[in-house]
Amino acid sequence: RESFKLSGWIMNPYNRMTIKRDGTGPVVGDAAEKHFRDMLALHEKLFLWTAEDKGDFDFITITDFFGETFTIDVKCKERKKRHSVQDDAHVTQAQQDHEVDAYFFYSGISDDNQQYGFDLKPMGWCMKDEFWKEAKRVKEGDVDGVYRERADAGKLKYEALRHPDDLLMHLQGRDDADV
Fold first, then answer.
1. What whole-number distance in Å separates Cα of residue 152 and Cα of residue 54?
2. Cβ neighbours of residue 69 under 8 Å, at least 6 residues apart?
3. Could you say which DSSP state residue 56 is in?
4. E strands along 15-68, which residues?
5. pLDDT digits over 87-135, tens only?
6. What is the dihedral of CA 123, 125, 128, 132, to 10 degrees?
7. pTM for this one?
8. Pairing mode, if any, of strands 69-78 and 102-110?
9. Rounded CA separation 148/81 (Å)
10. What is the three-class DSSP state of 142?
11. What's the CA gap between 49 and 13, in Å, rounded?
């Protein structure tokens, strides 16, 4: 696995949470985290990639000169079809009490021609409390269309999320991202 170094910290990215029966869930999760890491770096945000050391979130960002922090858990669902805002953002029920400020959601389609091995599309983000307030609750075994739920979870349509670019404004303390 790739290591990432920032300010003397060396972190090995990985995602220990998966509900895929074949164990491949962490692969697309790692790819999404790398994409998110590169997005933060491109926009010159101060951050730590903490996925290996902290179970509740993947990134800690520094939002101001006083060291105010904001934690983000990156979520990615591997899909077999094109990305759609009608698809669902999922968070397993077991993670509802995790100490994290926000979720950032990706949709990923396996594609060896892409930089991270997946065609990754940032679908949006929301504050953790917003997600759990608005999410539809499902139970393991529930059927939703042609899919059977693999775990108790909360689901929210991607179209209900904030635009991915709004997270960067939020990290800069811009009020227009807090609508």
1. 22
2. 60, 61, 62, 63
3. S
4. 46-49, 59-62
5. 999 999 999 999 999 999 998 887 777 777 778 899 999 999 999 999 9
6. -50
7. 0.80
8. parallel
9. 17
10. coil
11. 7
